[in-house]
Amino acid sequence: MSTRVELRRDAGRFGPHEGPWVRRRQVGKIWGPADPAALAELTDHRGQTLAWGLLAPDSEIPMRVVSFGAAAPPADWLERRMAAALAGRAALGLSADGPTTGWRVVNSEGDGLPGLTVDRYGADTVVQVATAAMAVRQPAIAGFFAAHTVGRVFVVSPAQAALREGFTPQQQLHGDDATLTFHEHGLRFTVPAPPAQKTGAYLDQRDNRRAVAALALATGGGLLDVGCHVGGFALHAAALGVPAVGLDQSARALACAGANAHDNGLAERCTWVLGDMFAPLEDPALAGPFGVVVFDPPRVASSARDVGRAAGAMTGSLGRLLPRVQPGGFVVVCSCSQHLGAEVLDGVMLDAGAGAWTRVHALGPGPDHPVWPGHREGSYLRVNVYQRR
Length: 389
Prior knowledge:
This protein is of the alpha/beta class.
């Protein structure tokens, strides 16, 4: 029996411009089995077919569209789209024998595969499943990527996503001490394999790290990487001869950062400080002045309700950091929370004060993190660069 999701009469306009998510408040009735394994038809209240998508009946987003229009996707749509994602990265010049061997292979809705994220780390592949519909399809997904890599395949599901979507995670790991090794613009990184932060590293900042390193070199000052994780911004600056300081509250992350600095012959140019980015930051190594300060907090706003609190916390930290930037230097303010848009970051800078600043760049993730047009929630990473005047 087929499954059909019928929108309420008052659901509002729905189409490609509104994005691929169908919210619970928009759904009038689900006809047939509410099965995540089903490819469901979406209709308006008159029965006109609008789209086809994946079900997550226990979620606040009970349907995620995979194609708009009356025609149903082909039976092998999943394999076709995974293959298209691989081909798309190859067209970007990303390959196993290039100077960069860490990149995103599948970016959820951006590749027409909602709820699926896949990252490549050298020979290894990490698959992250975040919806009930993709959890049902996990064996086929893992099998596809096992056939397209010579390394290991890890499968993880964030606990919050599993709870929100109503599925039981079936993870595929390779031991608590497993690591992932990859190259980023010629630098060698080793990071903890899942279970770890994200899929192991933050590949979305890859191109920004190199661009910010070039800014640091031009200023003639050092670089302070606040929220450095395994040393990304700091190591790229150090590779250009810039002295770098990295701060993180995770001793494990800092140990990885130190090891990565050593492996790249950069240990003498790097200093690592264990501490909280939202604390007073009194360690002498953080005093400055610096040519560039990178402020890269974790996800601090999970919903629109969190924006005020998150902006206040960021304003407090930046108020302590901005005086440490030399005249003509830069501060790089990052947000991986889709609710904290570029305008919020501008507001945080204005509230933090400490001299005259102007925004010179508004950056985002690299081209291996595509966004489905109309899917506002897919544009989550903002990186604003401000210069002190």
